[in-house]
Amino acid sequence: MSNQPITTRPPTDEEKFLQQKFSEAIVDQVAQMDKLGQQLLTLELAIPGLYATVLTMVKGKDTTLSQNWALYATFTCWFAALLLTLVSLFPRQRTVDRDLIRQDPAYLHESWGIEDFFERTAAYKRNFLMVASLFFFGGIALATLTIF
């Protein structure tokens, strides 16, 4: 190792701009997950109604569905997707140390840093929405089995 001092310079305007946009992207992740959850919620409420409408149009007004495993599985998947989406949208209380940008991982059980809050909240919402999407599209796939 040499004892030479490390030379530094102030960040350029472009570097400051990039740092600002990076920080905004971290903060915006939570809002993006909320928007995705709202869109998914809209679909989850609309598709079962559309499903019933299409069945009525295809099979006639006096249609009755045979109650089989596919029908129960379809609505179970749709209900699970709806619940998971709602859980992702409800806010959770977290302890955040406003003086820390990033908490030491060993102390995350006590409090989070500001960056931890945004990243972990977005990851929490993303995980619930991914599973909700799988259940929802699984329900759509199962719905095709109930028509026959």
Q: What characteristic shape results from the CA principal axes?
A: elongated
Kindly name the structural category. Answer: mainly alpha
Helix content: 55-70%
Structural Rg: 24 Å
For the secondary structure, the number of strands is 0
Can you characterise this structure?
The protein is mainly alpha-helical and 148 residues long. It has one domain (23-146). The protein has three helices and no strands. It has helices at residues 13-59, 69-89, 114-146. The longest helix has 47 residues, at 13-59. The radius of gyration is 24 Å and the shape is elongated. The relative contact order is 0.15.
Task: Quickly describe the structure.
The protein has 148 residues and is mostly helical. Helices cover 68% and strands 0% of the residues. It is elongated.
Q: Topology of this structure?
A:
Elements: H1 13-59, H2 69-89, H3 114-146
Helix pairs in contact: 1-2, 1-3, 2-3
Features:
148 residues; mainly alpha; 0% strand
